[in-house]
Every structure is written in C-alpha cells, then in structure tokens.
Amino acid sequence: MSTPRKKSPAVKQSPAPARPAALPAKTASSPLGLEEIKALIALVGREPFQEFEFEAGDMRFRIRKDGPAPVMQAPVAAPMMMAAPAAPMMQALAAPMAAPAAQPVEDPNIHYVTSPIVGTFYRASTPTATPYTSPGDYVKPGQTLCIIEAMKLMNEIESDVAGEVIKVLVENGTPVEYGERLFAVRIG
Predict the structure, then answer these.
(1) Nearest-10 Cα torsion for 103, 106, 112, 117
(2) Quick check: 184 and 139 in contact, CB under 8 A?
C-alpha cells in the first residue's frame, strides 16, 4: 500500500521565470534528453538567478550556483615592464624599503569646526551680506560662524572655541556632509 506523493511545484527559481525556447515541450512520456539538459544548464549559467529547479514527469533536478552572484568587471591591462640596467636595479633591491608616506601630523593648536548636519553651507545670512567671519578674525565660543540650510531651515553654526580663524575650508553655497570640516581655528 502506498501513500499519495505530494507534488512539488513544476519550476522554482529566483528572481524571474525563464523557459528556454530551444527545449521541447515537457510531457510525462518524453523526458528531456542529454542535449536539452545541457542547453538548460547553459541557460541557467547565463542568467542572474542562483537556483533553478525543474520537474517533468518522474524526472526532477535542481541546478544551484554556489558562491556570490557574478560581478562583471572590465579587463585590466597588464603593466608594461621596461628593461633597465642591472646595476641600478641591484642598488634599488639592496636599499632598505622606504616607509609609506605618513599622514601629516596635525597641529594640536588648530581646532576644526565641523558640520553637525547635512545641508548647504552659507557664509552670510544673505548673498549680499558680509560673511559672519573671515580668515584673520578672532572668534569666541558661541559666536556664529556660518549658516547651514537643511530642509528649508537655516541653522546657525557657532564656534565652540576662542581663537583666530585661519582658514575657511568650504566654498559658499556648496553642500556639506555630517562631520565635514568647515573652519580651521587657531586656539588662543
């Protein structure tokens, strides 16, 4: 005595169904031949989906690609080697390896005022007004340095230290990111 077998869906795949035109119609009496199966495997290999399941009559198989989805890359040209005299080459090999370029050491007396929000940087309240501050000006904590417009709101950015503004790091009217440096202030 046998129990009825639960039928699974005929084709499962992700993201879009695809039926190759080269394959014959599926029927229970005519299973796929070797050439049709090879064509199906080739089709699945070209398509972006990772898994394909097929059932025809009592034949059932699944094709699954392992690993991440393929990423198309442009071919990279190999670097060209030029012949060089042997003596300089040997001297270069004998010389100790140079240390990678170190990051410039920042002056501890320079404080950077950064943007607390994403928006558009303005040095003055209107296009014709004088800027709130310019290089060479002395500022104190709480003094307005600029305005950042975000979602039609004008946000005044104030200095958090006392000192001399030595550089404005952003052009007027340009977009700024959160944490982007706006002003360099020499503390003192």
Answers:
(1) 20
(2) no
**Containing H/E element for 42?**
helix 34-46
Is pTM, for the whole model, over 0.90?
no
Which residues, 6+ apart, have CB-to-CB distance to 64 below 8 Å? Answer: 50, 51, 52
Delimit the domains of the chain by residue range: 11-64, 110-187
Q: Which residues contact 142 (CB under 8 A, 6 or more apart)?
A: 158, 159
For residue 128, the 8-state DSSP code is T
E strand or H helix at 123: none
Quickly name the fold that domain 110-187 has. Answer: OB fold (Dihydrolipoamide Acetyltransferase, E2P) (2.40.50)
Q: Give residue 122's pLDDT.
A: 95
State whether residue 114 is helix, strand or coil: strand
The C-alpha atoms of residue 52 and residue 70 are separated, in whole angstroms, by: 16
Whose tokens are 């090999």? That residue is: 93
The C-alpha atoms of residue 31 and residue 60 are separated, in whole angstroms, by 10
What amino acid is encoded at 98 in this protein?
A
The Cα-based distances of 44 to 16, 18, 37 in angstroms read 12, 9, 11
Q: State pLDDT tens for residues 55-69.
A: 777 777 777 776 555
Bridge partners (DSSP) listed for residue 53: 12, 62
